UniProtKB/TrEMBL annotation:
The keyword Endoplasmic reticulum applies. This is Trafficking protein particle complex subunit. Keywords: Endoplasmic reticulum, ER-Golgi transport, Golgi apparatus, Transport. It comes from the Eukaryota. Belongs to the TRAPP small subunits family. BET3 subfamily. It is found in: Endoplasmic reticulum; Golgi apparatus, cis-Golgi network. Residues 1-29 are annotated as: Disordered. Transmembrane segments: none annotated. InterPro entries: NO_sig/Golgi_transp_ligand-bd, TRAPP-I_su5, TRAPP_component. The keyword Transport applies.
Length: 216
């Protein structure tokens, strides 16, 4: 019986795999040539998204030292996604409006995240946005039924894990890109009606509040 190295030899791989012919590749649309505005309504099925995300969580879980490390990595992954979501939404807004504008006030920026960003990523707006009554630098985005939490079974030794740290990373990236630096974290706030209810906590930097006071 041949070893696994035999199957990975250059001779074998070159015989089994080859580059597509010019005529074949030319007949297929290149993903990099697609019109970004025409593909804005394309959607990925929820089961496919959930399966991919659960695989990401399982892959990452095997390479971390604990819950905090796993949430940090999910946050980093979400941050990368959020940066690209901001780019594509800004691009589409520029071509869909004769007078595109960049939000310079905090509340309109938060509402854009609550509605436009959430719809772009999860297919629907978030359920609520609230301001903390205790701390003036804190706001909260509420998702009663997070898509990424629906098919995640958290083991007992990871009982405090919030996979919505991925969503927190997206929010943090968008806020940074818009000029509202903040620390964003995800927290489980379940109710009897919504057992997976999650709160995305936004803690703004002092410079943001100082600028808001000047713009009043």
């Amino acid at each position: 019986m041949n070893s696994s190295l035999d199957h990975l030899s250059p001779t074998t791989s070159s015989a089994r795999f080859s580059l597509p012919s010019k005529s074949t590749s030319a007949s297929r649309p290149n993903i990099y040539e697609r019109n970004l505005n025409k593909s804005r309504l394309s959607e990925v099925s929820a089961p496919s998204f959930s399966f991919l995300f659960s695989e990401i969580v399982q892959y990452t879980q095997k390479r971390v030292s604990g819950i905090n490390d796993l949430e940090r990595r999910l946050n980093t992954l979400g941050y990368r996604v959020g940066s690209r979501v901001l780019e594509i939404t800004a691009y589409r807004a520029e071509f869909s409006s004769k007078a595109p504008k960049r939000e310079i006030r905090l509340l309109p920026a938060l509402m854009a995240i609550h509605t436009q960003v959430w719809r772009a990523v999860y297919g629907k707006p978030a359920d609520a946005i609230e301001k903390s009554v205790e701390n003036v630098d804190e706001y909260m985005i509420i998702d009663n039924d997070p898509l990424i939490e629906r098919h995640i079974s958290v083991p007992r030794d990871f009982a405090g894990l919030s996979c919505s740290s991925f969503s927190a990373g997206i929010v943090e990236a968008v806020l940074d890109g818009l000029g509202f630096p903040a620390r964003v974290t995800a927290h489980h706030t379940p109710t009897s009606t919504y057992p997976t209810r999650t709160t995305i906590l936004i803690k703004l930097e002092k410079s943001v509040l100082d600028r808001e006071d000047i713009l009043k």
